[in-house]
Predict the 3D structure of the following.
Amino acid sequence: MKAHLILENGMRFSGTMFGDEKNVVGEVVFTTGMTGYQETLTDPSFAGQIVTMTFPLIGNYGINLEDMEAKHTNLKAFVVREKCDFPSNFRNEMNLNDFLRQQGVVGLEGVDTRAITRLIRNHGTMKGVIVKGDPSENDIKILMNSLDNSHVIMDTTTDEIYTVNETGNTNVAFIDMGAKQGIIRDLVKRNCKVTVFPANVTADKIEEINPQLVFLSNGPGDPLDAPGTVDTVKQLIGKYPICGICMGHQIIGLALGCKTKKLKFGHHGGNHPVKDLKTGNVFITSQNHNYIVSDYPDDVEETFINVNDGTCEGIRHKSLSIQSVQFHPEASPGPLDTGWLFDRFLKEVK
């Protein structure tokens, strides 16, 4: 079915709709991963967004349901230059089109994804709609103005408290801001007992399990829209070691008195270079965020910076057991360069 991606600045890209065929609105971003499209599709950090893949051919190894990073997709739409209808892989269970239809996600193919990427790089992230046929300008305006991503954290967090690996020897309170399962898997690999709490958990509820470590996950949207999580972390400071990734890093930063601000077009993909300010080593990392931490108080210091734009990629408190990083050490998808950070986080317990 003929369809159009229309950006809020009026630019229009025509293509063919696949997956779930419906009109949709979202924040348009691009991601630079050459592989890992299924992890991208199921990463809760993309909630509320229309995701454009910069790699031209998507879907060639199909979909394997074991590789889901969440129970279902949360993005609004998936834009590709070309989709593969006949994937070839021994683990393949279905093709991209069938998966998107099953998940209720709109797909758009046959568009110039390179042009979309350049446009976002030059003008910044913007709203967009994908519409079937030729709707009126008024219909497009109404759909464009209906976007509200202020609730995406609560849309993607867990509905209930649950525990993974009951027999683990390190008791971790895990605050789910819209977590990828890869983070929980890496903690379990290190023999942690992980109790997962929703994003709006209170400090009292965390204290009931007497954790050895409080861990905050990745998640979508603006950290200022978090449902009271910053206040929860403030109440836990000094009582337990606290660590975080991505959205968790931003929440920790706000709790410590830092500020956050929105990037022009965000960091999305598995090839972002990050420098360790202590050693000078550079690591290639997986990232997916639109906001960064800035303006640190005197008792907070940077630990990592982004080599491309110099933005903050990690912080630590100078005297308390608190540290966090903006990138994704669990690498789902992406390189395994920084998996050792989970071991560093767990050293805070000691």
